[in-house]
């Protein structure tokens, strides 16, 4: 037989493993949810591949996920009839971290102490969570459609070994060489059938394939009793919302999301009408690290009658909602769904419209009923909503209502446009904003002076994307959105005009000198009635780009 080939883990993976191994993360039993979720995903993928390659599925394929405890050897094996992996896939999937966001988060992370548990809670560690309960992990896998099996082993200490193996059918078995039971540190006896049953019930009941223990051999029965699933196998979206607990939603969320933090909001909807569908959607409490990368794929699963047809569906919600995670199941779609077909399908469009509205309504309710929670959402994902203002014309009005900005009213406080309008004093007819790199920078702007004097609130737009918002939105509830920093504001009211004429004559020669001196930098030097304390202010002409927009555009060029 061939010698085992040694590999070293990608640096980030080793870092993650060190975190996992040394962390005080208490909820260690969730390793089972992770491994069983992977097994379930692998069966989903096999069934999906088999749609176009029926040779991949043996006749009467009844996929199962088996838990095989061995109390004497102190091992637990998790076995599935899924798609399996080739040698290259094993090295790639289990030895590296593909997700750029996780990689970057890890690169930034220096803490190995108390913060570790919390950090683990932030990005799901998936397969690596097995090292929370095992000293050594062995994986044997055979890819469907191939004859060769491969064995992967590691003690999580920097390297792993890969060698040839035997497996009589496609699928994957993962054997954990368990750490000693240590209840103080949350390590139970994972060879105990009762413990395994409880964990499955608690953390993996929603898995739609049977999770089974081997039948128990008794003295009377020579044959083991038939395998009875530990889980109910009912997908979470098919159950009545009133019967699903928050923890069950959260476990399901963690299965599909790579995110171990709790979802901020859960939307569960079941519709039977012209088009039938069931959906469980989550608003996450944190935006994915790679949300603004071009290649970002949403965590949105599309099922047709419980059969997974797309793991990262981009057709069911608008692009700006790519942070929404969850699963949608509809019997009204054909199984062979190509991307083009999905995009043009009438039912998909109907579902998309309804789900989009549902998410927006949920945000609206959150804004009305739990402002603190809504602001938490806004600080994480408000930028994506602003993208929607610029791109989702059908929902733009609703989205305008969702916007929050800082303002001159109160440091730290955020205001909606409606709230701003509600506070407008008599005499103010427009909504005023000022863009800048930071609150501090804006507050130093002389352009604010006249607004301060009048007691008019000014919105502070400090996010580069805000420029896109004010470029595409010119009005809210009939009130114009206007830049306090642009052009000749008519705030230099008529009362100032006369003296201004006189002053003009007086300052004419001075302005002339300035104009010639500054000609390479400014378009025009003129007398202003808007300043009350500062001697001069730089402004941009009404239709020119603001400095912030120029900043934004040059960012795009880098
Ligand atoms: P995630 O499931 O979030 O992608 P994991 O760390 O849990 O991350 O798993 C990493 C990858 O390893 C999976 O995406 C999959 O490609 C592969 N994998 C893990 N377990 C299995 C399995 N039982 N069968 C086939 N592939 C698997
Ligand atoms: Mg996983």
Automatic annotation (TrEMBL):
Residues 1-339 are annotated as: A. Keywords: ATP-binding, Chaperone, Cytoplasm, Nucleotide-binding, Stress response. It is found in: Cytoplasm. GO terms for cellular component: cytoplasm. Coiled coil: none annotated. ATP binds at residues 34, 38, 80, 85, 93, 100-101, 122-127, 172, 339. Residues 27-182 form the Histidine kinase/HSP90-like ATPase domain. One of its GO terms (molecular function) is ATP binding. Its main location: cytoplasm. Homodimer. Molecular chaperone. Has ATPase activity. Belongs to the heat shock protein 90 family. This is Chaperone protein HtpG. The chain holds residues 2 to 559 of 671 of the full protein.
């Amino acid at each position: 037989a061939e010698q085992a080939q040694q590999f070293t883990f990608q640096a980030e993976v080793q870092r993650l493993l060190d975190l996992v191994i040394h962390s005080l993360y208490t909820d260690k039993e969730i390793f089972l949810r992770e491994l069983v979720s992977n097994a379930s995903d692998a069966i989903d993928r096999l069934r999906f591949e088999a749609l176009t390659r029926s040779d991949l599925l043996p006749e009467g394929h009844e996929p199962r996920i088996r838990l095989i405890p061995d109390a004497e050897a102190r091992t637990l094996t998790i076995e599935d009839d899924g798609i399996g992996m080739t040698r290259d896939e094993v090295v790639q999937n289990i030895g590296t971290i593909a997700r750029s966001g996780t990689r970057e988060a890890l690169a930034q992370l220096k803490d190995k102490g108390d913060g570790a548990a919390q950090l683990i809670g932030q990005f799901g560690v998936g397969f690596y969570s097995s090292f929370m309960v095992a000293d050594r992990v062995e994986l044997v896998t055979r890819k469907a459609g191939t004859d060769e099996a491969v064995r992967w082993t590691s003690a999580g200490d920097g390297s792993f070994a890969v060698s040839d193996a035997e497996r009589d059918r496609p699928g994957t078995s993962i054997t954990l060489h368990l750490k000693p039971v240590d209840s103080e540190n949350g390590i139970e006896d994972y060879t105990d059938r009762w413990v395994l049953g409880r964990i499955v019930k608690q953390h993996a009941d929603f898995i739609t394939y049977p999770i089974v223990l081997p039948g128990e051999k008794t003295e009377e029965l020579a044959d083991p009793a038939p395998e009875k699933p530990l889980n109910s196998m009912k997908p979470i979206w098919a159950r009545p919302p009133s019967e699903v607990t928050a923890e069950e939603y959260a476990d399901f969320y963690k299965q599909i999301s790579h995110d171990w933090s709790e979802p901020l909001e859960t939307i569960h909807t079941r519709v039977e009408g012209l088009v039938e569908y069931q959906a469980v959607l989550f608003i996450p409490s944190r935006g994915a690290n790679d949300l603004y990368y071009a290649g970002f794929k949403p965590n949105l699963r599309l099922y047709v009658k419980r059969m997974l047809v797309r793991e990262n569906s981009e057709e069911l919600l608008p692009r700006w909602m790519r942070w929404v995670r969850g699963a949608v199941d509809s019997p009204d779609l054909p199984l062979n769904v190509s991307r083009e077909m999905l995009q043009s399908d009438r039912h998909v469009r109907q579902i998309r419209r309804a789900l989009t509205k549902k998410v927006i309504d949920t945000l609206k309710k959150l804004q009305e009923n739990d402002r603190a929670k809504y602001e938490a959402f806004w600080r994480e994902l408000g930028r994506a909503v602003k993208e929607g203002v610029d791109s989702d014309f059908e929902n733009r009005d609703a989205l305008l209502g969702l916007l929050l900005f800082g303002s001159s009213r109160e440091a730290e406080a955020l205001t909606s446009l409606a709230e701003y309008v509600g506070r407008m004093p008599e005499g103010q007819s427009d909504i005023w904003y000022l863009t800048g790199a930071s609150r501090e920078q804006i507050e130093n702007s002389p352009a604010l002076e006249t607004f301060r004097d009048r007691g008019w609130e000014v919105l502070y737009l400090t996010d580069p994307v805000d420029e896109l918002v004010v470029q595409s939105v010119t009005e809210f509830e009939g009130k114009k959105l206007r830049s306090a920093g642009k052009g000749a504001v008519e705030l230099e009211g008529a009362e100032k005009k006369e003296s201004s004429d006189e002053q003009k004559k007086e300052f004419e020669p001075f302005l002339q000198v300035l104009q010639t001196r500054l000609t390479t930098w400014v378009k025009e030097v003129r007398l202003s009635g808007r300043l009350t304390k500062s001697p001069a202010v730089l402004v941009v002409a009404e239709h020119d780009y603001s400095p912030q927009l120029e900043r934004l555009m040059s960012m795009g060029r880098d």
